[in-house]
């Protein structure tokens, strides 16, 4: 193991202002006002409206003396068209601050609207790194799932409905001004989403930890996320106790802080084309791919395994013997016990599409930070094993 | 142990943009320019000028097309008068961005100047929490010691020369825009300061970890700082290898991120009046007080000891038996081996002053987050043991 505990000697680390705690959704109004807003463009979805959280947010905005426009044209794997419609609505209504309340879909829609209202054009113009020129309106993001990390990250993932693929937009300026998490919102999240968003967080944590751009600043958050998930994932899915749900929420935040700064790897590089092509649940795809990608990566990250073993609840004496197998087994057991789906076939992926998906993954921005290089054949082999 | 891994359910976490890496001091110019500056007010000290770092910074500023005013009226335990003179100079010269390069003294002077040029008045008007009304000019801070944490923190500590005491200024808006650390600058730091600033970082990490305002977001950074210090403190002091020095630099950054958000405790509450009264080295005072305060705190923080034991390089099975003694012994051994001073007497503190120092510490803002309450008698007892 190198004496300096990081892969890279140079590191950058940037996170928004973070507010976290049960019952704190009621501060959404004061957060928006503090950023100078008067008319809020509130992005959320119908599930959260039904559950009462949108109502709570609206009351908080009104109590802070703000008016708002409500926009809920948000679907899972948010679409370019929904963002473009949202931006038109923002401009028509003269809004001046954006609040996103929901899972990755609502938050990425909020980010997309923020990009378009200040930069113009179509959302696909901003695909890739650092295409955003003009500063965005103030942005508050409030996650209500335990996986996306969009509330702290410099990413947005949007479905290009014409090309049937997911576009990744990456820019420092789409991290929000404030990330506000109220873990109480998990209480109304359907069981299925508790599992699939938390396994998304697990994937974020592990990919961030193994990323070639990981540093001591990101590793501490990745390992904390792993610890919290090891402790509470299965219990949260089965028993839904508030403390366990809060731990998942917290894990998602830690994992988001890690991957936003260290980026990801092959799991997400493959999950993006799959999600874009089939419109399937992102967390489920990750849960399926994670064990195979882990098996592929482990031989080149041996020196980081003892710390990960510690995060997974095992103590090790610092030697790497045995850690590889133990890490692999523990992650798989965790995914099994959480009830996550375990094959691409079960999601409706068609075997004949695998070569094309592997080809598309090679162009995804997430492939760049994979600890182990992979060509089209390697990726296809991973997909076949996960099929 | 509580299921939810934090002392407080509500947490806030805020850090500046962080850039860290050997050789990166040459980016100081592009950082200042990116913040919109044209004429930089560069605060540093004579030791760094002699060592050549100021020269390197100046060249970087010029290469970025910026002009600058150089201000080096900075002494250890920076004085109100130096800050007020600096602010007058900033205004006279028409500067528009501030860069602080140095230890806590240079950086806190830079913060103080930033406060005064935008808010007017005298620096003592801003003592305490949240007294700053108007936004500060852009601020880049570059630490060249391994202890202060001022480059990421929401604090500045200034010597009130009339009252002979240290004032703590606490406000979100005095965290800089950018924290830029180049660990290479440690290569010219005198041996004595490597030890005393690193033990300051150790004290930040331990006090942040035990603080009643600690959260999982701060704990991960506190523990990482402890790990890095356990590994490299003694070696860095004795052998001064670049990798070990870099680990100290990194430890200081992690500890700063922790305590800026969780605040501190009795060590710093006592160190501030001592430093203000005797003008002695801050890190030395902390190193002396830390073992006694640790002994005082440990009985009330038992549930956090296993994680700390792990950070200190010991593995434990999660039970608290034995951890208390082991933590205490390990910290003391680390301080001994690093050559830190071990008695207040050796610093020239006069025994008759102890009651007055204990009284002053009771009013210090750091006492608020101590895990164990303390009255004047408790504080006096700690001072006497450390005498």
What does this molecule look like?
The structure is a homodimer of 387-residue chains. Chain A has 14 helices and ten strands. With 387 residues, the first copy, chain A, is α/β, with parallel strands linked by helices. Chain A has two domains: 17-185, Rossmann fold; 190-385, Dehydroquinate synthase-like, alpha domain (Up-down Bundle), CATH 1.20.1090. In chain A, the strands form two sheets. Chain A has a six-stranded parallel sheet with strand order 2-10-7-5-3-4, sandwiched between helices. In chain A, strands 6-9-8 form a three-stranded mixed sheet. In chain A, α6 runs parallel beside α10 (282-297) and α7 packs parallel to α11. The first copy, chain A, is globular. Mean pLDDT of chain A is 93; it is low at 1-8. The interface between A and B is large, with 43 and 42 residues. β1 of chain A pairs antiparallel with β2 (17-20) of chain B, so a sheet runs across the interface.
């Amino acid at each position: 193991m190198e004496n300096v505990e990081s892969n890279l000697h140079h590191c950058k680390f940037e996170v928004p202002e973070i507010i976290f705690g049960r019952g704190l959704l009621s501060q959404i109004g004061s957060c928006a006002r503090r950023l100078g807003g008067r008319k809020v463009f509130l992005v959320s979805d119908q599930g959260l409206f039904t559950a009462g959280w949108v109502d709570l947010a609206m009351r908080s905005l009104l109590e802070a003396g703000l008016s708002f426009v409500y926009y809920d044209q948000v679907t899972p794997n948010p679409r370019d068209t929904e963002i473009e419609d949202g931006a038109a609505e923002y401009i028509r209504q003269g809004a001046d601050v954006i609040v996103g309340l929901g899972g990755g879909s609502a938050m990425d829609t909020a980010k997309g609207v923020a990009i378009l209202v200040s930069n113009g054009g179509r959302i696909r113009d901003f695909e890739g790194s650092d295409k955003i020129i003009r500063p965005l309106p103030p942005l508050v993001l409030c996650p209500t799932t335990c996986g996306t990390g969009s509330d702290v990250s410099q990413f947005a993932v949007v479905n290009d409905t014409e090309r049937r693929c997911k576009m990744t937009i990456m820019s420092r300026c789409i991290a929000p001004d404030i990330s506000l998490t109220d873990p109480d919102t998990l209480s109304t999240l359907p069981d299925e989403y508790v599992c699939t968003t938390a396994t998304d967080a697990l994937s974020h944590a592990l990919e961030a930890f193994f990323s070639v751009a990981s540093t001591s600043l990101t590793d501490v958050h990745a390992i904390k996320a792993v610890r919290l998930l090891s402790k509470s994932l299965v219990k949260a899915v089965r028993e839904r106790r508030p403390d366990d749900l809060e731990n998942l929420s917290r894990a998602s935040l830690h994992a988001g802080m890690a991957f936003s700064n260290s980026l990801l790897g092959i799991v997400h590089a493959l999950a993006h084309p799959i999600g874009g092509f089939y419109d399937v649940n992102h967390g489920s795809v990750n849960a399926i791919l994670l064990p195979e990608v882990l098996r592929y990566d482990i031989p080149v990250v041996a020196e980081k395994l003892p710390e990960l073993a510690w995060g997974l609840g095992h103590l090790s004496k610092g030697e790497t013997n045995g850690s590889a197998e133990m890490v692999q087994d523990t992650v798989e057991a965790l995914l099994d016990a959480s009830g996550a789906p375990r094959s691409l076939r079960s999601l409706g992926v068609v075997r004949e599409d695998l070569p094309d998906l592997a080809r598309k993954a090679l162009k995804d921005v997430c492939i760049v930070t994979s600890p182990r290089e992979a060509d089209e054949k390697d990726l296809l082999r991973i997909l076949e094993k996960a099929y």
